Amino acid sequence: GQNIDQPTEMTATEGAIVQINCTYQTSGFNGLFWYQQHAGEAPTFLSYNVLDGLEEKGRFSSFLSRSKGYSYLLLKELQMKDSASYLCAVKDADSWGKLQFGAGTQVVVTP
Amino acid sequence: DTAVSQTPKYLVTQMGNDKSIKCEQNLGHDTMYWYKQDSKKFLKIMFSYNNKELIINETVPNRFSPKSPDKAHLNLHINSLELGDSAVYFCASSQDPGTGYGYTFGSGTRLTVV
């Protein structure tokens, strides 16, 4: 099974940087995903890491350390529209496509 | 063009009723999923189908019965609805579950059982 932990809520000001940490314990691992979910909407795919290191995609970057069971999502130059829940999800090596999600981190961006 | 579409978006019904939620994807994906998001915002997998075949069934009560008439459709039928079934149900699809392609989610169905 999987145990995925991430902070419940983070607050930051517009233009700042926020780092959302995710730790996981897993019996098998085949990749880690980050999703963004605005209130009342569907989650949308942000990033995927399967090897150690940093993946950069515009203002968003995601990092993975498999030996530490740790990932973070870095949001730079925060904008008001970045206020949303950010979900960390781990793909189990044994299960066909199944993603185990964390409870999500609510990011609140203030002016 | 909506990639993954679910209907209805909202569903309010009484305990004991039977209801269905429909899902269709036009992405050509082979694998489709049903996830449940409860009030604490946890997304938990319920079922997965690959090319109309059931491949994941996560200890869901047998009141829930998925049906996949073809690989573009995955419907969810729920019998004898209970208060605890109130949640948002998301349909999703993926191109190749063995790779890094993420899911594409539908917009969700908010089910309220009263």
Keywords:
heterodimer; A: 111 residues; mainly beta; six-stranded mixed beta sheet; five-stranded antiparallel beta sheet; 11 strands; globular; B: 114 residues; seven-stranded mixed beta sheet; four-stranded antiparallel beta sheet; 0% helix; 51% strand
Outline the structure in words.
The complex is a heterodimer of chains A (111) and B (114). Chain A has 111 residues and is mostly beta strands. Chain A contains no helices and eleven strands. In chain A, strands 2, 4, 5, 9, 10 and 11 form a six-stranded mixed sheet that branches. In chain A, a hairpin with a 4-residue loop joins strand 7 and strand 8. With 114 residues, chain B is an all-beta fold. Chain B has no helices and eleven strands. In chain B, strands 2, 4, 5, 6, 9, 10 and 11 form a seven-stranded mixed sheet that branches. In chain B, strands 1-3-8-7 form a four-stranded antiparallel sheet, with no helix packed on it. In chain B, a hairpin with a 5-residue loop joins strand 4 and strand 5. Chain B is globular, with a radius of gyration of 13 Å. The model of chain B has no long low-confidence stretch (mean pLDDT 91). Chains A and B meet through strand 5, strand 9 and strand 10 of A and strand 5 and strand 10 of B.
From N to C, what is the helix and strand string of chain B?
EEEEEEEEEEE
Number of helices of chain B: 0
- Rg of chain B from C-alpha positions? 13 Å
What percentage of amino acids of chain A are in beta strands?
over 45%
